[in-house]
Amino acid sequence: MSNFASLVFWGICSIFLFHLVQPHKKLKVLLSLFFSLSFIFYFTSFFAMSALVVWSSLVYFLGQKTQLQHHYRWYYFAIVVIFCIFKFDAFDSGHKNALLDSIVPIGFSFIMFQSIAYLRDLKQNELHREHSYLTYLGGTLFFPTLLAGPFCKFQVYLDGLNSSWNHSRVFHGFALASMGLCKFALSGFIVKNSIIGSMPLVPTSETHSLNLLILGSIYLYLNFSGYSDFVVGLGKLLGFEIPLNFKFPYLSTSMAEYWRNWHITLGHWFRDQVFFPLSHVLNRKLTFFSTRHNTKIAVFVTFFLIGIWHEFSWQVLFYALANAFFVTFLSPTSIRQTQKLLLIPLNFFSIILINGIFVSKSLDDYFGIVKRLAIFDPEKSFEKEIRLLLFSIVLLLFIYFSEKTIEKLAQYELLSPWDLFKTVLLTGVLILLTLTVGFSGVEATYVGY
Fold first, then answer.
1. pLDDT tens, position by position, 243-267
2. How confident is the prediction for the chain on average, in pLDDT?
3. Could you please report the per-residue DSSP string of 269-299?
């Protein structure tokens, strides 16, 4: 929460200054760089910030070399090795290296991704404008996307420097940022603290287990998408068109479609940088396998890398491989319109089942929750669980209507009074339900969402 509050503070300060220097591109670059470096320094140390600047400078000057066409693979390999050294030193031990911890800056993972994407764009001539060293630093260290994305290409930053200020951009950016704040607040103060925080660790019924899984997935979505929507809105206020990161993921008809609509920018990065190149290599080298089998291998490798990027632990690896299994073997390739009504709830159950791995404290806790789903006690009172289930349904309705509003705002469409009324009404209903479904007097051992 402190990271997000700091981002809000830096964002408010930067908006006013960016608008003051709006016509001057060089001043916008300097301001962007100043806010980004101060943001990094606030969370880490001067040494870590300096190491990050040196690293980014090295990537920039390597990228300007004409020999990049012949040696870019070695640059990729070096970036991946350095990433692994700093990211995975605590695997399965619970003890981080104090020295490495002190020099790794905030947003390290995203900066590594940014470096690889930048070198690839240079190689394929996808950067359409000349840029200076300071411009590159400003774009790579751009503070709104530094903490947790959305990941965006360097060209987005270049286009934003040349954008002009207008009232429509300000209105839609402010509305998007406000929606993001609302979703983030719901996740932090309602779902986690008031509802999930009052649930005992050991499920008392199959309905209780189902509520834990549903609310855990809702919390994960509201927390992450709320942050991302705020960043997209802040980007618009600063003049940068940062892409949306979510698009109705819980209405997907398969896990493959779900991953096309969840954390979209990261999925696109792994698709372009890992899945497509790996599929091409496998089809060329492993000719004794069919293209379909090589594609499945590429999917498992891609999800394995996504998992260890989040955290190098057995729990997250299990989560990643479970997703790969569902995407590879349980995702229909063609779906009729009449099948969607059945497939959406089935796929939503698959989503909450898998997300339970990611948000539980341990695999033992997760298996305990899943095991309790299969046990039915006819003498158990379900009044409390039913109220929570209704609360979850209202939350899902809020997610659906807020997503439609956010999609319109991102595309600069006008909002109808009905759109605003639905969003405000559901927010009010959620607040009222929070006051009625909260519990007290429960033991202080909680599920670790």
1. 999 998 998 999 999 999 999 999 9
2. 75
3. HHIIIIIHHHHHHHHHH-TTS-HHHHHHHHH
pLDDT(208) > 80: no
Residue 347 has pLDDT above 70, yes or no: yes
8-state DSSP, 153: -
Residues 6+ apart with CB under 8 A from 129: 155, 158, 162
Residue found under tokens 């360097």:
154
Contacts of 186 by beta carbon, 8 Å cutoff, 6+ apart: 222, 226, 395, 398, 430
pLDDT given at position 184: 84
Higher pLDDT, 91 or 447: 91
Q: What is the 8-class DSSP label of residue 198?
A: G
Nearest to 113 by CA among 227, 266, 241, 245: 266
Instruction: Show the CA angle centred on residue 18, arms to residues 16 and 20, nearest 5°.
Output: 70
Residue 361's CB is within 10 A of a number of other CB atoms, namely 13
Burial category of 154 from C-beta neighbours within 10 Å (exposed 0-12, middle 13-18, buried 19 and up): buried
**How far apart are alpha carbons 383 and 388 in whole angstroms?**
9
3-state secondary structure of 200: strand
Nearest-CA neighbor of 352 among 216, 223, 206? 216
